[in-house]
């Protein structure tokens, strides 16, 4: 077979497999022997349908055993997988338009959809100009395997900074990154992984699905809605499991929702790794979670802050040293590209982290030799430790580009390296990530990051971080900030305008928009800032009210 990631299909371990969460609180188990047979028979049906090595097959399925079997069935057929999110909380028409945009770029030979999603998929195919109807997952009479094409998968970015774009992930990219994940996580042969992350997102797909399955480790797999309804169920997995990954909000959510009595009798001392990534890491969220689970044996040294992105397959850096994460607070008035970052305060995760929200960031570890990371200035010159610039990633995990010639405004692929469009710096050997360069504005020669403004505004108004989104507004000879708030109240607006005036100066125009349902998010929960701004400027944001 072409890749070690598919080898398990030839030699499955019937003593291990996947435990899939059920809606009644239980688990269904299927061993790797049964999964491999089903995947190869699915490959047979796909080949009968005309799928050939190198073809793209788009898959729209919920997280279940059919999804697992179909995913690896596409691989066994030699094709490239493109997983597309189910609709979740999106409006039907918006969801169809989103899927159609992916299909137009991916140009799949087949679109696979479950019965309950077939109508959406069919409408999206029609909008994308693709003939035919969605293919229902099924198995053929015989097992089959074909040689693989060059691309393992198309990983569509979630669209926080524009239209979705398909990242071309080669087999070499995927193998290198899966090896990096397993090595830095300290994954051992008998370790168990537990995850509720969606499979269409790179952290859930590559980090907590493909990597353990390729190594035939035991996997406990939940759907995101299982986690939202009962976060304690996820924590209870770690009486057995040793590894997981989740965004910061998940740890804070557990701290709010889970009561200590729900964890009585648990022994969490075997929990080796709790990776944190996908969004800026809030040390307060980690600290409150640690306080919930430490009485049951969890160590805050198991936290693994990490940085990654789809364009680098997934993982770039992870703090893989057994120690509490390091949090720092840079001077916001001294953030300027190419200039030193002045650290006002720093501390390892602990009591000082309570309340450390706005302005604090957490170290994401030291790069491995096979994933070189550099910080560069606006001219592309490499900068030393402590200087702010753009993060650039090389090595075997750096993907070759976007599919079908698509381009992004911030992320670029140059000379085998990925210029990420993210701002960051090195401090005490660790990479610290400030956020998207496109999600900032230059004020008096320095960068002001909208995520930092959001956090401060959310704290001062009491609205909460999830109900405030700030967007940098470009303009000829003038800078601006648009602030979207999901509320009808406007009493807080004068104080916020004054705070922004003091922070940004009188030359930055501030637009405040209030209303219900204003904030649009990607499938991974990130605000779609540019999309929101474009809808607002085009007069398409229903219910929006601009405050004078």
UniProtKB/TrEMBL annotation:
<dbReference type="InterPro" id="IPR000873">
    <property type="entry name" value="AMP-dep_synth/lig_dom"/>
</dbReference>
<dbReference type="InterPro" id="IPR020845">
    <property type="entry name" value="AMP-binding_CS"/>
</dbReference>
<comment type="similarity">
    <text>Belongs to the ATP-dependent AMP-binding enzyme family.</text>
</comment>
<protein>
    <submittedName>
        <fullName>AMP-binding protein</fullName>
    </submittedName>
</protein>
<feature type="domain" description="AMP-dependent synthetase/ligase">
    <location>
        <begin position="27"/>
        <end position="403"/>
    </location>
</feature>
<dbReference type="InterPro" id="IPR045851">
    <property type="entry name" value="AMP-bd_C_sf"/>
</dbReference>
<dbReference type="Pfam" id="PF00501">
    <property type="entry name" value="AMP-binding"/>
</dbReference>
<dbReference type="InterPro" id="IPR042099">
    <property type="entry name" value="ANL_N_sf"/>
</dbReference>
């Amino acid at each position: 077979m072409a890749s070690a990631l598919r080898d398990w299909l030839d030699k499955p371990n019937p003593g291990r497999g996947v435990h899939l969460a059920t809606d009644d609180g239980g688990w269904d188990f299927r061993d790797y022997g049964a999964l491999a047979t089903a995947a190869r028979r699915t490959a047979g049906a796909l080949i009968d349908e005309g799928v050939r090595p190198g073809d793209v097959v788009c898959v729209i399925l919920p997280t279940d055993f059919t999804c697992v079997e179909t995913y690896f069935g596409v691989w066994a057929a030699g094709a490239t997988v493109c997983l597309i999110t189910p609709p979740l909380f999106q409006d039907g028409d918006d969801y169809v338009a989103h899927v159609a945009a992916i299909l137009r770029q991916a140009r799949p030979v087949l679109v696979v959809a479950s019965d309950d999603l077939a109508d959406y998929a069919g409408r999206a195919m029609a909008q994308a100009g693709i003939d035919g109807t969605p293919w229902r997952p099924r198995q053929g009479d015989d097992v089959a395997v074909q040689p693989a094409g060059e691309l393992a998968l198309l990983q569509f970015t979630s669209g926080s900074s524009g239209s979705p774009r398909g990242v071309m992930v080669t087999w070499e990219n995927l193998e290198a990154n899966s090896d990096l994940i397993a090595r830095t996580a300290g994954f051992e042969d008998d370790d168990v992984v537990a995850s509720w992350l969606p499979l269409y997102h790179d952290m859930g797909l590559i980090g907590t699905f493909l990597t353990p399955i390729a190594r035939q480790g035991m996997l406990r797999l939940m759907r995101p809605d299982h986690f939202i309804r009962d976060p304690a169920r996820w924590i209870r997995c770690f009486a057995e499991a040793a590894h997981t990954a989740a965004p910061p909000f998940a740890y804070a959510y557990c701290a709010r929702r889970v009561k200590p009595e729900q964890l009585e009798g648990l022994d969490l001392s075997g929990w080796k790794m709790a990776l944190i990534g996908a969004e800026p890491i809030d040390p307060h969220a980690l600290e409150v979670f640690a306080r919930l689970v430490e009485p049951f044996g969890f160590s805050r040294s198991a936290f693994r802050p990490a940085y990654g992105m789809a364009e680098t397959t997934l993982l770039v850096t992870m703090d893989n040293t057994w120690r509490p994460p390091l949090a720092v607070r840079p001077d916001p008035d001294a953030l300027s590209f190419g200039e030193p970052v002045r650290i006002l305060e720093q501390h390892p995760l602990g009591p000082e982290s309570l309340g450390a929200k706005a302005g604090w960031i957490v170290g994401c570890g030291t790069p491995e030799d096979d994933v070189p990371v550099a910080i560069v200035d606006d001219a592309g010159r490499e900068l030393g430790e402590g200087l702010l610039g753009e993060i650039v990633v090389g090595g075997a995990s750096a993907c070759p580009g976007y599919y079908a010639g698509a381009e992004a405004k911030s992320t670029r692929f140059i000379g085998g390296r990925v210029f990420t469009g993210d701002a960051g710096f090195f401090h005490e050997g660790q990479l610290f990530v400030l956020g998207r360069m496109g999600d900032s504005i230059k004020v008096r020669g320095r960068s002001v990051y909208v995520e930092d403004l959001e956090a401060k505004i959310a704290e001062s108004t009491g609205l909460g971080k999830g109900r405030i989104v700030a967007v940098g507004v470009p303009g000829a000879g003038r800078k601006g900030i648009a602030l979207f708030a999901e509320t009808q109240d406007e009493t807080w607006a004068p104080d916020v305008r004054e705070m922004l005036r003091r922070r940004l100066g009188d030359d930055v125009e501030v637009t405040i928009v209030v209303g219900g349902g204003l904030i649009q998010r990607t499938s991974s929960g990130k605000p779609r800032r540019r999309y929101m701004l474009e809808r607002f400027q085009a007069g398409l944001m229903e219910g929006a009210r601009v405050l004078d």
